[in-house]
Design goal:
With 162 residues, the chain is of the alpha+beta class. It has helices at residues 12-25, 36-43, 96-110, 125-133, 149-158, and strands at 2-6, 51-57, 60-72, 77-87, 116-118. It is built from five helices and five strands, in the order βααβββαβαα. The longest helix has 15 residues, at 96-110.
Amino acid sequence: MLSIREARPGDAPLIVQFIRDLAAYEREPQAAVVTEQDILRDGFSGDRKFWVLFAEWNGEPVGFAFYFFNYSTWLGRPGLYLEDLFVRPSARGKGIGKALLARLAQIAIDKNCYGMRWQVLDWNQPAIDFYDSLGGKMLKEWITVRLMGEPLKELAALGIEH
């Protein structure tokens, strides 16, 4: 049987493992450098940055959803941003991903969010088809921009001079 639960501090090692499993699936295992300490600091402290749901099949963790909230200036309401959704290959085809998304949709409604957003890799056609079947709209006119590492430090160093 399927059940969905919120993560607890003791789940930090499991959260890290799911993140690493997802990174391997997305062909970048070396990119997942997150630690249990990072998870505990940012997910279970007074200054919480994210939340996690686990899907369990017969008591065994088989999927997770990692999310946080953003804000739409145009709509004047928060949005739910799904950072990671992953179901272990052995558990796919049982409605687990859909159940996690349904729970997230309920959280978004309960928190008065305008909706949900997430990204999908352009080569991940099974996920694209799945999201499309749920009514998800692919925003192809938007390009993701990321600034990190040295360029981020260089920009920060510019500061504002008066």
